[in-house]
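Complex 159.
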Amino acid sequence: MNVSFCVNGESHELDVAPNTLLVSVLREHLGLTGTHVGCDTSQCGACTIHLNGRAVKSCAMLAVQAQDAEVVTIEGLGRVDDLHPMQQAFRDCHGLQCGFCTPGMIMQAVDLATQVETLDADAIRQGMEGNLCRCTGYQNIVAAVAKGAVALKAQSGEV
Ligand code: FES
Ligand code: FES
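Predicted structure with FE2/S2 (inorganic) cluster bound:
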């Protein structure tokens, strides 16, 4: 089947099997391996991307369901020399250890920060509950999301 969508600002038209997962297309067809696969069962959130501006688990979607969608992966969020505010916050707060969960964490955190007006620690923990980390104990991730959310609001002129 043909599927056409835009990924990180670039249009793509691909021929995929009907049962191909979106995460497989991103990683194997487009080489965007920053989107990780931790479980394949919608549990861990390592595969989280943005689809039309909202965070989704790309292992839980078929590629054909992304027809005409705007997809952003961690590669499209910022650049090494110009990090997105949420990426910078994870760096500043040491919100990662092995880094396996981090791309999905950041994609989810950006969505959370844009959806929820006031993000206290409880709201962050609740909003990030679909993203699992086996290294950090979450404390620094919560701090990073809080800092990133403030930075994002400042960037958008809300504060
Ligand atoms: S790989 Fe998608 S939720 Fe774990
Ligand atoms: S930093 Fe290792 S899984 Fe989260």
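The first strand starts at residue 2 and ends at 7.
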